[in-house]
Amino acid sequence: MHVVILGSAAGGGLPQWNCRCPICSLAREDSTCVRPRTQSSIAVSPDGDRWLLVNASPDIRQQLFDNSVLHPREGLRHSPIHAVLLTNGDVDHVAGLLTLREGQPFTLYGTAGILDSVNANRVFDVMAEGVVAREPIGLDAAFEPVPGLRVTLFSVPGKVPLWLEGKTVELGAETETTVGAMIEANGRRLAYIPGCARVTDRLKGQIAGADALLFDGTVLLDDDMIRAGVGTKTGWRMGHVPMTGENGSIAALADIEIGRRVFVHINNTNPVLVEDSPERAAVEAEGWIVAHDGLSLSL
Question: Tag placement on the chain: N or C end, fewer CB within 10 Å?
């Protein structure tokens, strides 16, 4: 199984367009110290020929340009992307669908709850009916979006997308609006969970034994954004478990048998983005990889 991390940052990317926090400033001044990153997305293939795109980042056009395995190969119009899968309805995971509108056939997969949020917004009708099929998928039911690639969706603790929040927000609920994906091919298993509010025993059971885990790395500490002075929300309020702390993902997943552990969906205020920082060293010492755009895994 071939895996390419197209975008490793959380919403807004790195640097964010209007942010002068220390990490965004470093990304502009010295890319050897802080690598710029685009917004969260991966591509997976069983054979290196046919690909599944998981989440459609607002940066998708640049991501496809930067990865030659996803370039058109034949005729006047072509794409090796045969299907797109959404793990939630967040802007940084669905806005790129507007770029995938140039008459290219593919199937869009997601739970009914996720696709309902897309279907309710008529701007997504630019993906013409009859060209892009929309296929709702139930939880815990395996399907094959690309021949040779088996996917099972499972609920993870999360929240509704920011643009669908009401006056009250339920945090940490396990519904079909925030899901993880277990992706299998050729006897290998990849768990992809770019958004997760907390690590539960049920979740640990879902991912135990995976050959690789790509997991929510939005914040190092719950109050990263507050410490940086650029926001008032905690990681928990945004629906993201911190990497560290008593209930953080590193400690919570330490006793689970998993192959490679990779943090994705990393917010611009997370200090692990600084290459030579003590925070990066501490996370790596725990056996985790901090993802960057273009990171490839062969499983």
Answer: C
Burial of 255 (0-12, 13-18, 19+ CB in 10 A): exposed
Q: Which of 257, 258, 225, 260 is nearest to 240 (CA)?
A: 225
What's the pLDDT tens digit per position in 56-77? Answer: 999 999 999 999 999 999 999 9
Q: Which two tokens stand for residue 111?
A: 């739970």
Cα angle 117, 121, 126 (rounded to 5 degrees) comes to 120
**Domain range summary for the chain, segments of one domain joined by +:** 2-298
Q: Please state the CATH superfamily assignment of the domain spanning residues 2-298 in this structure.
A: Ribonuclease Z/Hydroxyacylglutathione hydrolase-like (3.60.15.10)
Helix segments in the chain, DSSP class H? 22-29, 60-66, 91-94, 112-119, 201-207, 224-228, 235-238, 249-252, 278-285
Name which of 26-40, 131-145, 159-173, 269-283 the model is least confident about: 159-173
Contact 105, 131 (CB under 8 A): yes
Distance CA 23, CA 33 (A): 9
8-state DSSP, 120: T
Single-letter amino acid, residue 75: G
Using 50, 70 and 90 to split pLDDT, how confident is the model at 160?
A: low
Rounded to an integer, what distance in angstroms lies between the CA atom of residue 37 and that of residue 108? Answer: 25
142 burial via Cβ count (<10 Å: 0-12, 13-18, 19+) = exposed
Provide the mean pLDDT of the chain: 93
Residues 21, 15, 58, 196, CA torsion sign = negative
What is the rounded radius of gyration, in angstroms, for the C-alpha atoms of the chain? Answer: 18
